[in-house]
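job 3f2a | input accepted
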Amino acid sequence: MVVMKDLSSHTTPLFVSAVRLLPAGLLLVAWAARSGRAQPSSPMAWMSIAVFGLIDGTGFQGFLAEGLQRTSAGLGSVIIDSQPLTVAVLAALLFGEELAAGGYVGMGLGVAGLCLLEVPLDLLFHAPEIAAGLLTDGPQAVSAAASSTGRSWSIWDSGEWWMLLAAQSMAVGTVLVPWVSRYSDAVMATGWHMVLGGIPLLALSVMQEADTLLPRLADFNGWDAVSLVYISVLGSAASYGVFFYNASRGNLTALSSLTFLTPMFAALTGYIFLGETLTPLQLAGATVTLGAVALINSNGKRKQAS
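job 3f2a | predicted structure (306 res):
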C-alpha cells in the first residue's frame, strides 16, 4: 500500500490501479493455461467472472486508489485489513459458516492488533480528545473549509470512506469466489477477473487523468518501473492467485483472517531490510495479531450449518 501511494504521486492513482491489475491478470491467465487449466467457456462462467471483476477488481482497486490520496497508508491498511469482519458476516449468511466464541474473540483481537501496529501513537493515546474535538470543532472546521474553497464538504472527500468501500468490495469479492468457481477454474477466473476489472480503470485513467499522467510519465524512472512490477507480479498475480484459489476450497472466514497478518509482515520487512524500528507497542500488536489468527484458525470455527 505504501508503494502504491508513492507510485500514485509519480503517476496517477487510477493508472496505478489499472497497471496493478492488467499485466498481473494476463500473466496469471498465461500461467494457468500453460498449467493445463481450462478457459471459461459458458456464458454463466463469463458473467460470474465479470461480476467478480467489477466488484473486486474495478471496485476494490478504484476505491483503494482514491482512498490513498485522502488518508495515510497506515490508517488505510487498518480499515482494509479489517474486512474479515464483513467476510465473517457474509459467509455466515450465505454459506452457513459459523464462528465459535473463540473466533469472535479472535476477530476483535485481530482488529486491536492492527490498531497497535499501524495507528499513530498520538491518535491511539488521545483518541477521546480527538473525537471530542471533532464533535465540537468539526462543524466550524467544515464551514471554514467550505468558505475557503467555495464548495461544501461531502463524505466523498473522506479517505476513510473510500477505504471502507474498498474493504467491503474486497470482502464481497472473497465470498463470490465459491460461486464463481462453480463455473470455471478458480485460478483462471482470478486472472480474467483482474483483466476485466482493470479495463474500466484504464479507461477512466485515460479520460480523467491524461493531462496529469503524460507529463509525469516523462519523469518515470527505473525505480518506478521496479515498483510497478512489484505491485503487479507479487502484489497482485501471486497473492491474488494463491488467496482466491484457497478461497474456493476452504473456510472463507478463517482464510480472510490471514489478512490481519499483512501489516505485521510489512513492519517486519521494514525492520529487516530498511532498518526501521519497531516500538514496544507495535511488537505487542504483532503478538496480539498472531494470537488472533491462531485463535480463529484453531478453535474459532464451527462446522457449516447444514
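job 3f2a | The mean pLDDT is 81.
job 3f2a | closed
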